[in-house]
Write a structure and sequence with these properties.
- Catalyzes the attachment of tyrosine to tRNA(Tyr) in a two-step reaction: tyrosine is first activated by ATP to form Tyr-AMP and then transferred to the acceptor end of tRNA(Tyr).
- The chain has about 400 residues and is of the alpha/beta class.
- The protein has 3 domains: about 5-225, Rossmann fold, CATH 3.40.50; about 255-330, Orthogonal Bundle (Tyrosyl-Transfer RNA Synthetase); about 340-405, Roll (Structural Genomics Hypothetical 15.5 Kd Protein In mrcA-pckA Intergenic Region, Chain A).
- About 45% of the residues lie in helices and about 15% in strands.
- It contains 18 helices and 15 strands.
- It has helices at about 5-15, 25-35, 55-65, 95-115, 130, 135-145, 150-155, 155-165, 170-175, 175-190, 205-215, 255-260, 270-275, 280-290, 295-310, 315-330, 345-355, 360-370, and strands at about 20, 35-40, 70-75, 125, 195-200, 220-225, 240, 245, 340, 345, 370-375, 375-380, 385, 395, 400-405.
- The strands form 4 sheets. The protein has a 6-stranded mixed beta sheet, with helices on both faces.
- Helix 11 (about 205-215) links the parallel strand 5 and strand 6.
- Helix 10 crosses helix 11, helix 13 packs antiparallel against helix 14 and helix 15 runs antiparallel to helix 16.
- The longest helix is centred in the first third of the chain and has 18 residues, at about 95-115.
- The protein is globular and about 70 Å long.
- The termini are far apart.
Length: about 400
């Protein structure tokens, strides 16, 4: 293996971000001698991103920490189509106003992880609608389309998966990979961008952009993909029984975000500390070596660091104190998720209202399995009615999910 010298490549390797690369030796040499602008694209399909996007956000953070320039590309143009990569069906198409509202909302997330400004290594946010919306169809087909082979496009895993399952893949979506390749070409021309990064499912799209830039402009650009982040038990990163782990606090309370990290599997603690915090590597090595009950202290450090980065120091401290009071003192902390009730509510509706269950059937199964509690008492009757007065009532689902019923 070639000995790399740039701070960028060394950092990404040491912290476990690299899955695939194109000409990593040339990229390392470039990064060692100049500022490298690099980008990742995000489609604004919702007002918030979730934890599944966090490794990509952290990748941009590492780029900036290494002395390079992050470019956050919002897919205001491609978001009107939707990325078909490894999806079982087409995404719902958003209108112009909905996309713009989501872009404004998502920007607030990136401002917590990156430093924006006009400096040489300050982050910038751009929208591919600025160039994609202005394309003329015939000139685009003539100038750009000629560089793409349909045979090769059909060979990409993201397309083959849909076709092998005999699932519909519209012509609209098939064009997505051409448009993403064109994004790389445009950013190379407009911002001197030399690097595209993304998840492992974006490999084919990144390679297309690299080849298009080389064929049309003779420009050498590079690509890096990250590994698919799964938990030690094989689950998908960021999925819980109550749904997606959103990065915006208006879609997920601080305590729930903190508790997500606190509930990390023992086997994932070191890996997640490297990927999702700025803790020094020697400190991470010490923490992941802890055994038995001591590993819980490492999980608290992970939860505090990850929450502080995304939600702020005050939110992390509040969530940690709520957890301490709830689990160590047996009292109900003030920042637990809450559900406002007028008079009384059934245990089934309470579990749904707190976000612990997605349906009445799921709530009933939780109760039948002995996983629901009101206060310290296990619930066995799914018809239980809870009266809510002046004092909040604590409801729990399993050992890790707690919430409050509050009188409205």
């Amino acid at each position: 293996m070639t000995l790399h010298t740039s701070k960028l490549i060394l950092s990404l390797r040491e912290r476990g971000y690299i899955h695939q690369t194109t000409d990593i030796d040339a990229l390392d040499e470039l990064a060692a001698r100049q500022i490298v602008p690099g980008y990742i694209g995000f489609d604004p399909t919702a007002p918030s991103l979730h934890v599944g996007s966090l490794v990509q956000i952290m990748l941009l953070r590492r780029l900036q920490q290494s002395g390079h320039k992050p470019i956050v590309l919002m897919g205001g143009g491609t978001g009107k189509i939707g990325d078909p990569s490894f999806k079982e069906e087409s995404r719902k198409l958003l209108d112009h106003d909905g996309i713009n509202a989501n872009v404004r909302s998502i920007r607030r997330i990136f401002e917590r992880f990156l430093t924006f400004g006009d400096g040489p290594t300050d982050a910038v946010m751009v929208d591919n609608a600025d160039w994609l919306d202005k394309l003329e169809y015939i000139p685009f087909l003539r100038d750009v389309g000629q560089h793409f082979s349909v045979n090769r496009m059909l060979s990409f895993d993201s397309v083959k998966l849909r076709l092998d399952r005999e699932q519909s893949l519209s012509f609209l979506e098939f064009n997505y990979m051409i448009l993403q390749a064109y994004d790389f070409l445009e950013l190379s021309r407009r911002a001197g961008c030399r690097l595209q990064m993304g998840g492992s499912d974006q490999w084919g799209n990144i390679v297309n952009g690299i080849e298009l830039s080389r064929r049309m402009d003779g420009t050498e650009v590079y690509g890096i993909t990250t590994p698919l982040i799964t938990t030690a038990d094989g689950g998908k990163m960021g999925k819980t029984m109550s749904g997606a782990v959103w990065l915006h606090e208006d879609q997920l309370p601080h305590f729930d975000y903190w508790q997500f990290w606190r509930n990390t599997d023992d086997r994932d603690v070191g890996r997640f500390l490297r990927l999702f915090t700025d803790l020094p590597l020697d400190e991470i090595a010490r923490l992941e070596a802890l055994q038995g009950a001591e590993i819980n202290e490492a999980k608290k450090i992970l939860a505090n660091a990850a929450t502080a980065m995304c939600r702020g120091e005050a939110a992390a401290a509040e969530a940690a104190e709520t957890a301490r009071r709830t689990f160590e003192e047996g009292s109900a902390g003030g920042s637990l998720p809450s559900f406002t009730v007028t008079g009384e509510v059934s245990i089934v509706d309470a579990l749904i209202g707190l976000g612990f269950c997605a349906s009445k059937g799921e709530a009933r199964r939780l109760i039948k399995g002995g996983g629901a509690r009101v206060g310290a008492d296990k619930v066995s009757d799914e018809a239980l009615i809870i009266a809510v007065g002046a004092d909040p009532v604590q409801v729990s689902a399993g050992k890790k999910h707690h919430g409050l019923l509050i009188a409205g």
